[in-house]
Design brief:
- This is Tagatose-6-phosphate kinase.
- It is an enzyme of class 2 (transferase).
- Catalyzes the ATP-dependent phosphorylation of fructose-l-phosphate to fructose-l,6-bisphosphate.
- By secondary structure, the chain is of the alpha/beta class.
- The chain has 2 domains: about 160 residues, Ribokinase (UDP-N-acetylmuramoyl-L-alanine:D-glutamate ligase), CATH 3.40.1190.20; about 130 residues, UDP-N-acetylmuramoyl-L-alanine:D-glutamate ligase (3-Layer(aba) Sandwich), CATH 3.40.1190.20.
- Helices cover about 35% and strands about 25% of the residues.
- It has 10 helices and 14 strands.
- The strands form 2 sheets. Strands 5-4-1-8-9-10-11-12-13-14 form a 10-stranded mixed β-sheet, sandwiched between helices.
- Strand 6 and strand 7 form a beta hairpin.
- It is globular and about 60 Å long.
- The model has no long low-confidence stretch (mean pLDDT about 95).
- The structure holds adenosine-5'-triphosphate and magnesium ion.
């Protein structure tokens, strides 16, 4: 089974407004509601690609109930812990001349709620995959991902971590199967700026030395580079197309990478290709990535992947 953990999932309320003004009444031209959060996004894309996942995390209030309902509509089974105080976040995005976002805080999560999460994680078994993705809400300990991996130590799991700074580096001693920093996140870890795939390679290699098995660095419209546990480096430009909305391209890439890996019985080049297509499929669409779009890109793209052995 594939488990995704989104500690504070959201309801994304996306509206478009002509010439949005502060201090005035604005009327919407369109409005949509989507379930959101990084692990939730990974679950939705994987589900569309034919992989069942269980989405875990904490929810509360009527917004929490709606997140769960919308995920079920999207085919994703939730195993969320219902917490008592507060409500799941609403993240509001206003599309106008410029884009404005207002992100909610999320519910108050207690020590007891954390205990419930661990009691549910007990059921993970060898061969399962767990995706830990996104920020840690303020009411949770900042080393939450480390605590989860410490708890799961000894099980042969495929662990994927998508997080920033110490939240990511703290998990490396548990040898995650995949980490996917973008160029800014990779640069932030080492206090440098990364401008190209070539520049990313030595820093990705450092993360491998610190414990990560496979490191996928995404550079938005500049493509991605993958350092595998077999000592290979794959590098590629991004796919070409009309870019509409790149938010969530990284989450989509993770789902595509995992599906490509599982579909091909462990071929990293196939995983890399499907990751590139899934990332692009998100960038080329306003809302969700779909299997239809990913398959179309997989079929019609003539990939130009540079492949070499790590020195
Ligand atoms: N403009 C684009 N054109 C084509 N492909 C893109 C574009 N932006 C992103 N992608 C694809 O998606 C992958 C992931 O994108 P990106 O590096 O923006 O992830 P991210 O910063 O983690 O995003 P997020 O955190 O919002 O999910 C890229 O490596 C690329 O393959
Ligand atoms: Mg990201």
């Amino acid at each position: 089974m594939i488990y995704t953990v989104t500690l504070s999932p959201t309801l994304d309320y996306v509206v478009s407004v002509d010439h949005f003004q502060t201090g005035a009444i604005n009327r919407t031209q369109s409005e949509d509601v989507f379930p959101g959060g990084k692990g939730v996004n990974v679950s939705l894309v994987l589900n569309d690609l034919g992989y069942l996942t269980t989405a875990m995390g904490f929810i509360a209030g009527f917004t929490g109930a709606e997140i769960k309902r919308l995920l079920r509509v999207g085919g994703v089974e939730g195993n969320f812990i219902q917490v008592e105080r507060g409500m799941s976040r609403i993240n509001m995005k206003i599309r106008s001349d410029a884009e404005t976002a207002i992100n909610g805080q999320g519910p108050e999560i207690t020590q007891e709620d954390i205990g419930t999460l661990f009691s549910r994680l007990r059921f993970l078994i060898d061969g399962d995959t767990i995706v830990l993705a996104g920020h840690i809400p303020p009411s949770l300990p900042s080393d939450m991902y480390e605590q989860i991996l410490e708890f799961l130590k000894g099980r042969r799991l495929r662990v994927i971590v998508d997080a920033e700074k110490e939240l990511l580096t703290g998990t490396l001693k548990y040898h995650p199967w995949l980490i996917k920093p973008n160029a800014d996140e990779l640069g932030d870890i080492f206090g440098v700026r990364i401008h190209s795939r070539e520049e990313a390679v030595p820093y990705a290699a450092k993360l491998q030395n610190m414990g990560a098995r496979n490191v996928l660095v995404s550079l938005g419209g500049d493509g991605a580079v993958l350092l595998t546990e077999q000592g290979e480096i794959f590098s590629s430009d991004a796919l070409k197309g009309k870019v509409v909305n790149t938010v969530g391209a990284g989450d989509s890439m993770i789902a595509g990478f995992l599906a490509g890996y599982l579909d091909s019985d462990g071929d990293y080049e196939m995983a890399f290709k499907e990751g590139l297509c899934a990332g692009a499929a998100k960038a080329f669409n306003l809302t969700m990535t779909t299997k239809k779009e990913i398959c179309y890109l997989m079929r019609t793209t003539s990939f130009d992947i540079q492949r070499k052995q790590k020195d």
